[in-house]
Amino acid sequence: MTVSVATSSRDMIEGALARAVQFPRLRYMGSKYKLLPHLARAFADVDGATALDAFAGSGVVSYLLKAQGYQVTSNDFLNFPSAITRATVVNQTVKLTAAEVDTICGEPADDRDFIRRTFDGLYFTAADREFLDSAWSHIDLLKGHKQAIAISALVLAAARKQPRGVFTFTDLRYDDGRRDLHLPLRDHFRERVEDYNRVVFNSGQTCQTRSGDVFDLPAKSYDLVYLDPPYAPPRDDNDYIKRYHFLEGLSVYWRGQKLMENTKTKKLEKKYTPFSYKRTIVDALSRTFEQFKDSTIVLSYSSNAIPDAGTIKDLLGAVKSDIEVREIDHKYSFGTHSTAQRRDVSEYIFIAR
């Protein structure tokens, strides 16, 4: 019989946090690494055992939920978060061996050159681009969780090597001399595999992951639904494809992806989401709350986003009678350009029962 995690003690919360802070850190717009202690307490207050992380992003919150004993379903509309959560949340015991890493880092298994040709002169050195093609020639031969770890490590290696972790520019304007920016991708990959191997653990609970629109999730009742939707910022944008298109393509070797050859960055075609636009986000949030009205909803939201906290509370109030709002001081930036200064904002955690 599944035991509720609502009775988690302080020691259990601290133990889950100790695991979660070891999670390999991907620099990702809206990531909740700094809010993990607040989220852990909110999750421990929910009476239940099954949880959905509907907008998984970097995967760290899905991993925290696993560490707190939940049976986790992780979802994101991009592909690479599903690879990360498959490697760290769904996977309970599998790791990549040193011999397997040596093979991936060794001579190529075939003569593929898609990355070398397509991204010639962009982002990385010729040797790094050659390594990415070669690595994928071996990753294609892996199966299951081993493949997921390898893809996750490759994605994180590419993100760490690229200044600011985003692919909206192709030059070295942000090269500040950090080791990550000059370490060869082959060496990055070896280190990132160690990072992912280190966080594999058996929670004793079956978890799953998927990639798709939140509104296409199969009808299922969860005890807890965590929502961290893309914010509609008052300025700039929240276009994840624009920032992370290379990671998205790399996670599937660009199979099934529409590459925009005429763009300087060789980005992917933008995926529509109603959460990105001021004119559609209120309806999108309302539909999401209605979709999960039978679950306890825990939602993260920023005071710097649209709509405001009062509107969020009203929308939740249409489907829930008990709404708690916890306000946390937080530094956050929506952009990576020179005018997007990190500024003090309030991060809200709504708990709607």
From TrEMBL:
GO MF annotations in UniProt: nucleic acid binding; site-specific DNA-methyltransferase (adenine-specific) activity
Catalytic activity from the UniProt record: a 2'-deoxyadenosine in DNA + S-adenosyl-L-methionine = an N(6)-methyl-2'-deoxyadenosine in DNA + S-adenosyl-L-homocysteine + H(+)
GO BP terms, alphabetized: DNA restriction-modification system; methylation
Keyword Amino-acid biosynthesis annotated: no
Enzyme Commission numbers on file: 2.1.1.72
Top-level taxon of origin: Bacteria
Coiled coil regions in record: none
Keyword annotations from UniProtKB, A to Z: Methyltransferase, S-adenosyl-L-methionine, Transferase
Broadest EC class assigned to this enzyme: transferase
Protein name, UniProt field: site-specific DNA-methyltransferase (adenine-specific)
Organism, scientific name: Kribbella solani
